[in-house]
Amino acid sequence: MRKIVQSHATEFALLAVIAIISLFLSFVTDRFFSLGNAFDLLNTSSVNIIFAVGLLVVLIAGGIDISFAVAASVVQYVAALILGWMGGGGWISGLLIAGALGISLGAINAFLIHKFKIISIVATIATFNIYFGLLMFFTRGVSIYTLPDWLTTRVILFEHEMTDGSWIEITLPVLVMLICVTATWGFITRTTTGRQLYAFGDNPEGARRFGINIGAMQFIAFGWLGLMAGIAGLVQAHYAQEVVPNALYGRELDVLAAVVLGGARLGGGKGSVLGCVLGVLLISITQNGLNLAGVSPYAFKMIVGAIILVAITLSNTSIEKLLPFMRQGDGCK
Q1: Contact 260, 311 (CB under 8 A)
Q2: Could you tell me if 172 and 159 are in contact, meaning their C-beta atoms sit under 8 angstroms apart?
Q3: Tens of pLDDT along 129-152?
Q4: What is the C-alpha separation between 29 and 32, in angstroms, rounded?
Q5: Per residue in 21-53, pLDDT tens?
Q6: Measured on CA atoms in the order 301, 302, 305, 311, is the torsion positive or negative?
Q7: How many CA atoms lie within 13 A of 119 on its CB side?
Q8: What is the dihedral angle through the alpha carbons of 23, 177, 106, 92, rounded to the nearest 10 degrees?
């Protein structure tokens, strides 16, 4: 049991923190601990979780990307225009277009990093500004409200009528999120490429000597994030029922904080899908509880900043060093 706790220390720590925060928020506001609020949290967190599992792959490979949210904005806008020219399309064509566009934008990042030996954070800061600048320049900030019927029609997977007559529901974004989470988990834990990404992120020079194609690893990692960003952009358009050029702008730091808080190491070679999802849920639960309690959104920004500091601290400090009882049990069988 102790070995299980040690191997999943970050996930257990996050579960404990989520439980404590949830208990506290249940006393602060009586609306927090309700099935309707839980369903709303799941629906609204879906896009960030899709972003997070994509970013996780890049962090595992030793990179960092802050352009994915803006890339998703570009994808959803361009995809909406293409679908309009096509006469509407459908979910399959929409996901294929969004996925292809997202992979292309991710490949641009990988090309810059691999070809010109640019540090990933520097390269993605540049593409972040380029993507967003081009998007706002060509769209002039004008939103798209006329979307295909299939994209704006709400797809309800589960619904239940509460005693007060209100309805709670699980919608399509949750299903898409679960598929993306499962696919990412399978990719990084059940494939040779996934194991190579861990090896590359942990020791790039050793991976190169072992025969792992460094360029391929970078294109795969950033391409996977691009794919997830493209899907997330389309899901966001479906959820909002409109395409707003700057709707996703600013989410990158929240998602990055959540993924690192979930155990992904900024230096690469470490991270899990479960920890990643728990990190997103921790931030979402905190934001939701503060909103229900009537706390200013500006205060939440300060809290996110604190979470980023904690995430970076945990990323550079072994979790066992923070949990003395684990060190004491190292000699036990």
Answers
A1: yes
A2: no
A3: 999 999 999 999 999 999 999 999
A4: 6
A5: 899 988 888 888 888 899 999 999 999 999 999
A6: negative
A7: 4
A8: -160
Contacts from 291-300 at CB under 8 Å and sequence distance 24+? 292/25, 292/28, 292/29, 292/31, 292/32, 292/37, 293/25, 293/28, 293/29
Tokens 């540090």 appear where?
A: 119
Mean pLDDT of the 302-317 span = 69
Dihedral sign, Cα of residue 311, residue 316, residue 322, residue 328: positive
Q: Which of 214, 44, 38 is nearest to 115 (CA)?
A: 214
Do 266 and 121 touch, CB atoms closer than 8 A? no
Q: Is 33 exposed, middle or buried (0-12, 13-18, 19+ CB in 10 A)?
A: middle
Measured at the CA of 63, the angle between CA 234 and CA 309, to 5 degrees, comes to 90
Q: How many Cα atoms are found within 13 Å in the side-chain-facing hemisphere of 55? A: 38
Closest of 152, 220, 146, 216 to residue 187, by C-alpha: 220
Query: Shortest CA distance to 76 belongs to which of 233, 228, 242?
Result: 233
Span 266-287, average pLDDT: 93
Residue 62: half-sphere exposure toward Cβ, Cα within 13 Å: 19
Residue listed under structure tokens 């064509």: 93
Its pTM stands at 0.92
Where does the pLDDT of residue 163 fall: very low under 50, low under 70, confident under 90, or very high at 90 and above? Answer: confident
Under a CB-based contact definition with an 8 Å cutoff, are residues 221 and 125 in contact? no
**Which letter, b or e, does each residue of 154-185 get, where b requires 16 or more Cβ atoms within 10 Å of its Cβ?**
eeeeeeeeeeeeeebebbbbbebbeebbeebb
Which of 240, 250, 196 is closest to 62 using CA atoms? 196
Q: How many residues does the chain have?
A: 333
